[in-house]
Amino acid sequence: MNTRLKLLAVGLSLLALSGCARNKPIVDTQGIDMVQYRQDLGECRAYAQEVNTGGKVAGGAAAGAVVGGAIGAVLNGTKGAQRGAGAGAVTGAARGAASGRQEKQQVVKNCLRGRGYRVLN
């Protein structure tokens, strides 16, 4: 498998994993109607799905490839540039996926706070 296909496979895997991540806010449930909370949580999670995780993965991969390629070129010419770009793309994609997950979690927490819940984490 060539390097580009490997990077594509890793990027798609990261994207799939980031979509599976569940936002698990910890909320003080004292005096809370749990039926209403579950409904609000579902609506807040739906808002969080609007975060463009795929864009963050792609942007991270592109930025990582540029930086990694430049460093690789300085250290080992053309061959180093190719390897550096590959390594940088994988690292950048992982960072982008993590950033997307974090942003989704923050959206859910902010949404719940906006609805009057006391989010503890």
Protein described:
The structure is a single chain. The chain has 121 residues and is mainly α. The protein has a domain at 1-8 and 49-121. Helix content is 79%, strand content 0%. The longest helix has 62 residues, at 53-114. The protein starts with a helix and ends in a 7-residue tail after the last helix.
Write the topology of this structure.
Blueprint: H1 3-20, H2 34-48, H3 53-114
Helix pairs in contact: 1-3, 2-3
Short description:
GO terms for molecular function: kinase activity. The chain contains three helices and no strands. With about 120 residues, the chain is mainly α.
Keywords:
mainly alpha; single chain; 121 residues; 3 helices
Q: What string gives the helices and strands in order?
A: HHH
Mean pLDDT: 79
How many helices does DSSP assign?
A: 3
Proportion of strand residues: under 5%
The backbone outline, from C-alpha atoms, is rod-shaped
Estimated radius of gyration: 19 Å
Q: How does the major sheet shape up? A: none
